[in-house]
Design goal:
alpha/beta, 8-stranded parallel beta sheet, 8-stranded parallel beta barrel, 25 strands, 19% strand, binds iron/sulfur cluster
Length: 669
């Protein structure tokens, strides 16, 4: 193993144990399985069966159903029988929180049970308790006593189990000793895993979910390293980003978290949690997984030496941004910049810039600038014959740049070979396009030249099929050779559908941003295939404006990796049988009232049982607490209990105002 995966340069799946769930095999290099979870009331057999069938027909290979109490656990038998009688044999998974007795019933009925080690036995009171080692060991023994009966039932009935840790619902005991950290998440699962292994029970899959892709990725990596170190083997991993939300943001967050791990061969089954109907999650899962079906045939990436393998110049378990020099507003502690590519537009008019966050008002001759406004525009060799807003600067082709008399606000763009052939360095900021898949000797020539040039920004992309690791390999080389020029992550997508574009762009930039690499992003795509794109059931995308699509995607990626905050963040649960209101409609309502509150994190959770725990680091929470009733939170503190749902959104706005988190929406002139 190379740190936390089989290889950082060669696509290989992490070797794990094989787990059998009904007739489905997971792990040990079996295909990456895709799954979802129903949102119906488990006591409503007909609705749950109908929704399960829709999920199976969409392609789900496993379907999870919530079992909050013994009643629902027992009703799983009706649901299973009904499905089998209709010819559907897809394995079912019971989702358990807080209720060991429901788990023990479900384990005798369905093919797999999911337990959350944060609340299977422990009750969460948000208490901080100082344990001595002996007291802590006594607590773990208490868990052993309560958890072992379930393990034995699973063993007897051939039922598989997921030990599913959530960042937002760690027990008070784990929080008190390890804090709200990836180490705490790993230890929470390992305590349960050790008990299961002591019973010689191995039909186990594990997960480490969080709504923050950075925490999630670090926790999975640490779990692999810990399992391998302690047992010399790994169990299959179920990947997911919790409460990812809906639309573009939900897809982008999921692609970053899940995709980053799959790039390194980690992950045996995935679920994309969207606040949408569960069958709509399946095509997104499929789009993510299919990126890896032919990955093994990628071109060679310069391997690391044995010493380099164990001495990476960055820490994949803890975020730290790569150090870089500052040139203009790029690098150092500046937030990553966004570059918009207008080089193929026939001509550029002021109104064209609205798509990238600049709205020109002719009567006042002023620009209104949005929070998600691009920083640079690449024009190729095109003249812009109007005054640009002061925050937007131009990148143009080197030859055109040389021919201009007035170079103010214009910066040259060069291909690698063009740069290597230059006799002198350029006097101002300039951008060099580099393919990380280029000949390694040529890259070495670049490194030698850039070392003495403190005005260069490298725009790094890769033509390698294994693109993200190929760019990462080059960036590691730059750190090793102490080259600290700023880096713009440049990704081009030639996919066929909108979701494929989102997933590709988000994975290939997001994975690097999570490791601290990148001082900017430059997203490009080929829209020819998109002309006939079907965006089933979704209307969020204005296909006619690709600049806006790419700009929004860039800012959403930066937001999801928390490297540049430009908008409100929503943490909304995917909903399940416990949900007490229409989550999709409510999320849309809250979003439209609050989407101008840059940097505020609002959680919208379907139930009071799991919602408060799973809200993770949200600033405010809107949580269903009974039929027609909402409880509002500021952080973890309950501020208003059981507010009637008809006035709950206006009460949330009042709470935001009282907490000085509200500003009036800007009125565009
Ligand atoms: S928070 Fe949402 S998804 Fe989680 S149990 Fe409650 S309703 Fe279900």
């Amino acid at each position: 193993m190379q740190q936390y995966c089989p290889s950082l340069t060669e696509y290989k799946r992490l070797k794990t144990r094989e787990v059998k769930i009904g007739d489905l095999l997971i792990g040990n290099s079996h295909p990456i399985r895709i799954q979802t979870m129903t949102t119906t009331d488990t006591m409503d057999t007909a609705a749950t069966v109908a929704q399960t069938i829709r999920c199976i027909e969409a392609g789900a290979e496993l379907v999870r159903i919530t079992a909050p109490s013994k009643r629902e656990a027992e009703n799983l038998l009706q649901i299973k029988n009904e499905l089998r009688s209709k010819g559907y044999h897809t394995p079912l998974v019971a989702d358990i929180h807080f209720t060991p007795n429901a788990a023990e019933i479900a384990a005798r009925i369905v093919e797999k049970v999911r337990v959350n080690p944060g609340n299977y036995i422990d009750k969460k009171k948000f208490d901080f308790i100082e344990y001595t080692d002996a007291e802590y060991a006594a607590e773990v023994n208490r868990i052993r006593d309560r958890f072992t009966p379930l393990v034995r039932i699973c063993k007897e009935y051939g039922t598989a189990m997921r030990i599913g840790t959530n960042h937002g619902s760690l027990s008070d005991r784990i929080m008190s000793r390890y804090g709200d950290t990836p180490i705490g998440m790993v230890e929470s699962a390992m305590e349960f895993l050790r008990i299961a292994r002591d019973e010689n029970y191995h039909q186990i899959v594990l997960s480490m979910k969080s709504s923050n892709p950075l925490v999630m990725v670090e926790a999975y990596r640490l779990l692999v390293e810990t399992m391998d170190g302690e047992f010399g083997e790994c169990y299959p991993l179920h990947l997911g980003v919790t409460e990812a939300g809906d639309g573009e943001d939900g897809r982008i967050k999921s692609a970053i978290g899940i995709g980053t791990l799959l790039e390194d061969g980690i992950g045996d089954t995935i679920r994309v949690s969207l606040t949408e109907d569960p069958e709509l999650e399946i095509p997104v899962c499929r789009d993510i997984v299919k990126r890896y079906t032919e990955r093994t045939s990628h071109a060679l990436i310069e391997p690391f030496t044995e010493k380099e393998k164990t001495h990476l110049p960055y820490n994949p378990f803890e975020y730290k941004r790569r150090e870089s020099i500052v040139i203009n507003n790029i690098g150092g502690h500046h937030v990553p910049v966004v570059i918009a590519d207008y080089s193929t537009d026939e001509n550029i008019m002021p109104e064209d810039l609205e798509a990238i966050g600049y709205q020109y008002d002719e009567p006042t001759d002023k620009w209104n600038i949005k929070d998600g406004a691009a920083d640079y525009i690449y024009t190729g060799a095109k003249e812009i014959d109007f005054a640009l807003p002061g925050t937007l600067q131009i990148i143009c082709d080197h030859k055109y740049w040389e021919s201009r008399e007035n170079k103010n606000g214009y910066y040259a763009f060069l291909q690698l070979q063009e740069y290597l052939e230059l006799n002198n360095t350029l006097p101002t900021l300039h951008f060099i396009q580099v393919d990380a898949n280029a000949d390694w000797h040529q890259l070495q020539q670049l490194i030698d030249k850039v070392k003495d040039d403190n005005r260069t920004v490298l725009c790094v992309e890769s033509s390698n099929k294994h693109a993200m690791p190929s760019v990462r390999r080059m960036l590691i080389e730059l750190i090793q050779q102490q080259v600290n020029c700023p880096i713009v992550l440049s990704v081009s997508s030639k996919d066929k559908t909108v979701d494929e574009h989102l997933i590709h762009l988000a994975t290939d930039t997001g994975g690097l941003l999570l490791d601290g690499f990148g001082d900017g992003v430059w997203l490009k795509n080929d829209t020819r295939q998109l002309q006939n794109a079907k965006v089933s059931g979704r209307t969020y995308l204005e296909l006619k404006n690709n600049h806006q699509f790419l700009n929004n995607t860039a800012f959403s990626i930066l937001q999801a990796t928390r490297t540049r905050i430009s908008k409100t963040e929503y943490i909304s649960c995917p909903s399940c049988g416990r949900t007490l209101f229409d989550l999709q409609e409510t999320t849309a309502k809250i979003r439209s009232a609050t989407n101008h509150l840059k940097g505020v994190k609002i959680a919208i959770m379907g139930c009071i049982v799991n919602g408060p725990g799973e809200m993770a680091d949200a600033d405010f929470g809107y949580v269903g607490s009974g039929p027609g009733k909402i409880t509002l939170y500021r952080g973890k503190e309950v501020v208003k209990r059981n507010v009637p749902s008809e006035i709950a959104v206006s009460e949330l706005i009042r709470l935001l105002k009282d907490s000085e988190a509200w500003i009036e929406p800007a009125v565009m002139v």
